[in-house]
């Protein structure tokens, strides 16, 4: 099946080649946005982005044939996932491939800040031997505060713990056991700020995390270093610049900015104690190859109607489980279609029950496929991504039940 893929942020060639080898046309159009993007995307079946392209409602309106948006990386704050779901478009990211790169960059930034490496480098290149001016800080024996103990946060914690740091972490969405396994103490936000001598931020940018570290929080730190290799916007830039300038903090290291590429008047650019890099966290060869490969494979899967491993707005399935549940996905869709045709009148509820071996598996995708089968004759562009939402919007009650029995399989789907 020949499909059109539009790539609007640079990804590694390995991903582009993989898509071409699978028989798809790949067009690259970097640094486009606004009207130019809307004009270019009209025929695309897939869009590949990193953090540079803003994928909003207008993009989905303009791209009526779009099946999937692939984010070659982790953060999806530049993609309107609700709008994607409304339009039945899958959004998938590559959450594993650049974690180590991001963690290593965070460690590098920690040292760059604590030992003033870029500042000393610049002075030396200018012919100044400023040896006596840079008295650094060791990380050994210090406390690292981790805000957001997810994939990257955990890798950073492991690396810095092995360098002699004590780890405290604030993350309201993880269990004590995850923290314990890492030798980290889970604490409240305020405690984390107060105890951290180095504070590293690893949350996504959400309405909850936007600006979560500002003047009051930096004052609570009362010294030490702040490292942000997560997302600009989590830490207030004016507040951080002022805190370092006024020696409320000893220094900071920042890889990500609220607006990228960064404007010349960004307050963080002018403070000597702040080390900056242009969003380089994921910029290693290995990471770029990993994420490009992952996104190419997921796009190909979406085109083939197969489950998309890291779909964020559709049920996703573990690769090892997929072969076992694949027949049930097709069966559930067919059962949905037949049930819809047999029904005379309005649908008020859909109940999907699983018996036999299938009842041991994660059947979310099979249920979504059953709904797709039910709604297909009634709705425009319904798929496993938007079918559950269509049910919700129409007030259709969906229930899923499982019963393990010796029967080989049965998916039953009564509609009311
Ligand atoms: P993740 O989803 O695995 O982890 C994020 C963690 O933050 C989760 O454990 C979550 O529970 C926690 N969290 C959410 N809201 C929170 C809140 N209000 N307070 C405290 N914790 C909260 O994500 P990840 O893969 O670890 O990525 C972390 C961040 O790093 C993301 O913003 C991602 O975009 C960014 N990132 C940047 C680069 C780079 O190039 N600089 C590279 C990779 C990832
Ligand atoms: C990410 O979220 O994966 C990072 O921002 C890396 C990137 O794509 O530059």
From TrEMBL:
Pfam family, one: 2-Hacid_dh_C
Enzyme's top EC category: oxidoreductase
Origin superkingdom: Archaea
Example GO biological process: L-serine biosynthetic process
Record's keyword terms, sorted: Amino-acid biosynthesis, NAD, Oxidoreductase, Serine biosynthesis
Domain D-isomer specific 2-hydroxyacid dehydrogenase NAD-binding: 107-281
Annotated metabolic or biological route of this protein: Amino-acid biosynthesis; L-serine biosynthesis; L-serine from 3-phospho-D-glycerate: step 1/3
Location of the D-3-phosphoglycerate dehydrogenase ASB domain: 324-410
Gene Ontology molecular-function annotations: NAD binding; phosphoglycerate dehydrogenase activity
Residue stretches making up the D-isomer specific 2-hydroxyacid dehydrogenase catalytic domain: 5-313
Catalytic activity reported: (2R)-3-phosphoglycerate + NAD(+) = 3-phosphooxypyruvate + NADH + H(+)
Signal sequence extent: none
The EC number(s) this enzyme carries: 1.1.1.95
Keyword NAD in annotation: yes
Protein family (similarity comment): Belongs to the D-isomer specific 2-hydroxyacid dehydrogenase family.
Protein's name according to its UniProt entry: D-3-phosphoglycerate dehydrogenase
Organism: Haloquadratum walsbyi J07HQW1
């Amino acid at each position: 099946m020949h499909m059109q893929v539009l790539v609007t942020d640079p990804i590694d060639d390995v991903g582009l080649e993989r898509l071409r080898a699978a028989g798809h046309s790949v067009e690259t159009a970097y640094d486009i946005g606004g009207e130019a993007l809307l004009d270019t995307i009209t025929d695309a079946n897939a869009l590949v982005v990193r953090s540079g392209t803003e994928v909003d409602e207008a993009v989905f309106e303009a791209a009526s044939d779009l099946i999937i948006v692939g984010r070659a990386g982790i953060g999806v704050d530049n993609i309107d996932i609700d709008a994607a779901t409304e339009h039945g478009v899958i959004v998938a990211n590559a959450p594993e491939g650049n974690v180590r790169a991001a963690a290593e960059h965070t460690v590098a930034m920690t040292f760059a800040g604590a030992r003033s490496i870029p500042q000393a480098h610049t002075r030396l290149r200018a012919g100044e031997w400023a040896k006596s001016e840079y008295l650094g800080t060791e990380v050994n024996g210090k406390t690292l505060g981790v805000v957001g103990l997810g994939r990257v946060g955990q890798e950073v914690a492991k690396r810095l713990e092995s360098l002699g740091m004590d780890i405290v972490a604030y993350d309201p969405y993880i269990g004590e056991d995850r923290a314990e396994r890492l030798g980290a103490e889970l604490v409240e936000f305020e405690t984390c700020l107060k105890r951290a001598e180095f504070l590293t931020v690893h949350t996504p940018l959400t309405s909850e995390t936007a600006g979560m570290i500002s003047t009051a929080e930096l004052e609570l730190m009362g010294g030490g270093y702040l490292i942000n290799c997560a997302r600009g916007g989590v830490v207030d830039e004016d507040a951080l610049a002022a805190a370092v300038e006024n020696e409320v903090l000893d220094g900071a290291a920042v890889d990500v900015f609220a607006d990228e590429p960064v404007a010349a008047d960004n307050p963080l650019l002018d403070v000597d104690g702040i080390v900056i890099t242009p969003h380089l966290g994921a910029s290693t060869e290995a990471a770029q190859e990993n994420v490009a490969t992952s996104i190419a494979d997921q796009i190909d899967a979406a085109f083939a109607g197969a489950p998309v491993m890291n779909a964020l707005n559709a049920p996703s399935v573990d690769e090892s489980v997929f072969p076992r549940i694949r027949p049930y996905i097709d069966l559930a869709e067919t059962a949905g279609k037949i049930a819809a045709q047999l029904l005379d009148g309005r649908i008020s509820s859909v109940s999907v029950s699983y018996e036999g071996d299938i009842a041991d598996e994660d059947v979310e995708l099979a249920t979504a496929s059953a709904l797709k089968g039910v709604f297909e004759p009634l709705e425009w562009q319904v798929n496993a991504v938007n079918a559950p939402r269509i049910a919700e919007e129409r007030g259709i009650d969906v229930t899923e039940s499982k019963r393990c029995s010796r029967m080989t399989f049965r998916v039953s789907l009564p509609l009311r």
